[in-house]
Design a protein that fits this description.
Blueprint: H1 8-25, E1 29-34, H2 37-40, E2 49-55, H3 61-75, E3 85-91, H4 92-95, E4 105-108, E5 116-118, H5 124-133, E6 135-138, H6 151-170, H7 181-198, H8 204-214, H9 220-228, H10 233-236, H11 243-260
Parallel strand pairs: 2-3
Antiparallel strand pairs: 1-2, 1-6, 3-4, 4-5
Helix pairs in contact: 1-3, 6-7, 6-11, 7-8, 7-9, 7-11, 8-9
């Protein structure tokens, strides 16, 4: 895949990431890829930069220290994208097919300079996007490192995620109390319903457009509002969410959980 359509300042950050990872990992480096919004083509100025670096084997402690130094250097670059890298270092044997144990990977979160261990990217959703839409920064084509993913397996994971996340929100483990989290959750549930309908992982804009067109008409206005509230997340995360919007989002989650039972690919939905 070509990366010529990416912003020049982002390409500068990605070059630092790829060349730095190659130096640290040496012969264990397999490849580097973009997934997420930049792979889908639905990115904007508020998008994070989702990446995967594939490693021939598990990352050693020495390599992890070197990668930490790399990400600290990148974070300090005078380029806005440098603070918005988010991704994982994926051992090839874990990436190739589903990992039911969801083993934690070396991971860096958006707006962070500190590597941690997280299973955030160890999902079929990430594997599907990487395989079907991933942008190759260095290394082999994604079809050589990720096995095909049956849509039924993808949808099964999405249904589980919807239920698990809904339970975390209902029990207060995940909070909707700021103006970033509340619209993010509503948009994410639109996107997950769209996946159940199509058997594919599509962009946030595509999921929102589908939901406005296809779901019960009463949800169109709150979904549009969630999308309009999305810009400037670094500010919105510090602002309290409107109590009415929180209540509407909780109702939408319950609606989505009921609907997910009836949406089974291929469902014949408009994509």
């Amino acid at each position: 895949m070509k990366t010529t359509s990416l912003p020049e300042d982002l390409l500068q950050v990605l070059k630092e990431l790829v060349t730095g990872a190659q130096l640290v990992l040496d012969g264990a480096f397999v490849g580097a890829y973009l997934q997420g919004s930049f792979a889908h083509g639905g990115w904007d100025a508020d998008s994070d930069v989702d990446f995967v670096v594939v490693v021939e084997r598990d990352v050693t402690d020495t390599e992890a220290n070197g990668l930490q130094a790399l990400h600290s250097r990148i974070f300090d670059l005078p380029v806005p994208w440098a603070q918005h890298l988010e991704g994982s270092y994926f051992p090839l044997h874990l990436l190739r097919r589903d990992d039911p144990t969801r083993s934690p990977l070396l991971y860096i979160d958006n707006t962070s300079r500190i590597l941690e261990h997280s299973n955030h990217d160890n999902t079929l959703v990430v594997r599907w996007v990487l395989l079907e839409r991933g942008l190759v920064l260095a290394g082999p084509d994604t079809a050589e490192i990720v096995d095909p993913i049956p849509p039924q397996d993808l949808c099964r994971e999405v249904r589980y995620t919807m239920e698990e996340w809904g339970e975390e929100i209902r029990t207060g483990k995940y909070h909707l109390d700021n103006r970033w989290a509340q619209p993010f959750v509503m948009i994410s549930y639109c996107r997950m319903l769209h996946t159940l309908c199509t058997g594919q992982v599509n962009s946030k804009p595509a999921g929102v457009a589908w939901a406005i067109h296809s779901l019960d008409a009463c949800w169109a206005a709150p979904i549009r509002k969630a999308w309009q509230d999305r810009p400037n997340p670094s500010l919105k995360v510090r602002l309290p969410a409107d109590s009415g919007d929180i209540e509407t989002t909780l109702e939408f989650i319950e609606y989505s959980l009921q609907l997910r039972v009836h949406l089974a690919f291929p469902a014949g939905c408009d994509s």
